[in-house]
Structures are given as structure tokens and as C-alpha cells.
Design a protein that fits this description.
Layout lengths: L3 E5 L3 H13 L3 E5 L2 H9 L5 E5 L1 E2 L2 E2 H11 L4 E6 L4 H9 L4 E4 L4 H31 L10 H14 L5 E4 L6 H10 L8 E5 L5 H9 L16 H4 L4 E5 L6 H13 L1 E3 L6 E3 L3 E6 L3 H6 L5 H7 L2 E4 L10 H16 L5 E2 L1 H9 L5 H15 L4 E2 L6 H4 L18 H19 L4 H7 L4 H11 L9 H4 L6
Parallel strand pairs: 1-2, 1-3, 3-6, 6-7, 8-13, 8-14, 9-10, 10-13, 15-16
Antiparallel strand pairs: 4-5, 11-12
Length: about 475
Amino acid sequence: MASRILVVDDEKSIQDFLRLLLEEGGYEVTTASSMEEGRKIFFGDSFDLVLCDIIMPDGNGLDLLREMKAHNIRSSVIMMTAYTSTKSAIEAMKRGAYDYISKPFDVEELKVVVEKALEKTELVDENVYLRRELEQKYQFSNIIGRSRPMKEIFALIERVAKTSSTVLLEGESGTGKELIARAIHYQSPRSSHRFLSVNCGALPENLLESELFGHERGSFTGAVRQKKGLFREAHQGSLFLDEIGEMSLAMQVKLLRALQEKKVRRVGGHQEEPVDTRIIAATNQDLQEKIESNDFREDLYYRINVIPIRLPALRERREDIPLLVDYFIKKTSKEMGIEPKRISVEAMRVLEGYFWPGNVRELENVIERALALSTDENINLDDIPMQLVQGGTKHPSSVEIPDEGLDLENYLDGIRRQIMGQALSRCDGVQTQAAELLGMTFRSFRYYAKKMGLTGTVESDPGDLHPGTAE
């Protein structure tokens, strides 16, 4: 689609000249002969660029510039005048003009200025589009989960997003802490500014300090230019500090000072710079235990733990597994360029009963693997990793009931599936031997094995020798 340009000038010859020149360049041109006419056309339509004269019969074009920029920041504006002065040029730029050109025009210069102004408009449009895409992507409604624990978290983070309070996200690896952090940012008043993240455990102390606070040129070997630092780059936005429990005690002191003073000092620098950056921290460790072992500062813990949010493990919200499976099948199929596949009932039962130590991230990887290896129109048991089918991951010896409660039947089914799977594995898949190992009747074992999608061979059916045995 051709870029749309509005020309506002009281001289008919200028209008005709610019229309001819710009239409030859492939642009769509509209003209206006006065401020009032230009105002009506601009506010009643949409333009990518405005060329506006400063001296008009019914007013000053700089006033129209101010109104245009207040109404629509995306449209670039170029001011034109036959009375060149440094003062008017500065005033035009202050009021938001992209550039300033003098009459009579240098045609080649005019073409270049118009082209650059339209590139700026296109860049603004692209940034607005990308920001809207991100905001839509990280809406709470797009985070998969209909279980009670997730609904409670959605309600909490919706309230949290409206504030600038520091948030501490706690939960096992793979539970989606960064996803929640991004959702908080993109639903907040800070969404028009940057969301940046850093893994505090992935960088040594000296590099982490430079990454967070920046450094001066020559402050250490390899510092060939000045670096701003994430705190400054995320000014008025949000900074996600992942795995904050891995941060050294020395860095914890520096971070605490930055949070308390809301100022940062570059490595090798002498001046402190004010920052307005929202901190969202995350950890998969028990920070209170680290405080007791003197590995984490208690004062920093209370500084970052203003609003704590605990993300449940996937096994604590098993009713969300079918929703997540459906989402990952559609998402991964689109990325692979294939038609989405269905998943068999038996395969879904295995996924619902598995312990998922890697949580949602592990589930996504399992679905990706299944789609890559499946040769059928459905995802079947054969496409699921054997350790899931046979219950290769043990449940902990003790279970702590989470605050939001526990689906006991679902939890016990998962334990049953994994123990029976281990018994089958130990007995080389022979169901009669696995049943004997667990003190179960063969028919009872066979019933649950079929229900849970466990496979194995049968050497003999004890039920055939004892017809009267109840199943």
C-alpha cells in the first residue's frame, strides 16, 4: 500500500509541484490550502507524513504541528518555509517535527528527507505492532491453566501488574516463571518500555555486575567502550532477575544498595545515576533455607519479597495437562509445518499420571519429540518415552499437601502407574510376575495395566486355572 502524504500550503503552485513530485515517487497525495482545511483533513483521516508550511493566511503552522503531534504520534511532520531562521527551525523540532526544509526546494534533498521521514513512520508502526503482539501474547488469558491454583495466581498477578512493587516468583524449574514475569510487565503501565532479563547464575560475579550496572570504558581488560547496564536500559520498564538465589553475597550487597537507593554506579565510574526499574525476581530454591545457611542476605530477601508468588508444579495441577498438551501440539505442529495430530486416550493417561520433574518445559519437549517421531496420524503410546510409560520417575517418600489442596485420586493413580511400571520393568514386562511382585491378583494387575496404558507380556493367566476368581 502506498504511503499517504498530506501537503498543507496556501500556494497553489507549491501544492501542484509537490503533488506531481510525490506521486511520481509512488505516494498517495492529498492537499490543503489553509490551516483549517488541513486540520479537518488530518483529523478526519490517517496519514503517514505531513508537509506543512509555517506561514499560513489563517495562522502559524507550528500551532498545527503541535495539534497534530498531540493527536497522532505516528505521523511524521516536515515543516516548510521561505523564511529560513535558526529560531523557527529549533522551535519546529521542539514541537515534534521530523525535519525542516526551505523554499525554494532542493528536489533531491526533499526526496531524501521524505523517504527518511516515512522510514521513521514505518518504524513507529512496527514498534507499535510488535508491542501489541507482545501484549496479546502475554495476556493472562493466553497462559494455559484452568485449575484452581492457576486461577488464583491469575487473579493475584492481575492485581500485581497494576503496581510497581517488587515481585518474587518461586517454583521449580520449568514452571513458567519468566512467562509470568513477562505477563506482569506487558499488562502493566510499564508495557511501553523494555522488559529485560538476566540469569544470575549464568554469569561470574564481575560480569554480572557489569551486566546489571554497566561499566566505563577502560575500567577493566576488554572494556573498549562504555556500557549502559540492564538497570539503565530497563529504565521505566521491568528487569527480570532469574535464579537470584545463585547470586554471590558480594553481588547481593550491591543489588540491595541499588534497590534501596534507586541509583546505580557503573563499574569504574564515580557518579550514581537514578533509575526507575521494576524488579521481578525468580528462584527455584528455598531462600529462607539459604538465609539460615548464610548463603543469602535476609535484608535483600525482604526487599525482593514484597509480593511473593508461588508457581505450582505441573503434578499439582494435573487437570491442566490436557489443555497444555493440546496447546503444545498445535504450537509445535505449526512450527514444523505439519497438520496437528490427535493424541490417543492411552498416551494422554500416561501424560496425566507422570510425575513431571521438569514440569511444563519437560511436557513441551515430550510433545515435540512425539510429533517428530510419530509416523501415524495420532500420537500413540509408542511415541511416548519409555520412562514415562513405565513410571521411571519416583514420587518422593514424603508428600506435603500444598496450600491450595491436592487431587488425591489423581495423585494416587500416578503412584500406582509408576510402581506398576517399575514392577513390569524389573520383571522384563511379564505381567504375571509383576503382579506377584506387588502382591496383586493377576486380573487386578491386568485391569489397571490396561486402564493406565501399561504394556507387557503374559506367560499364563492364573484366572484360567481358577475360573471362580473374582476380577
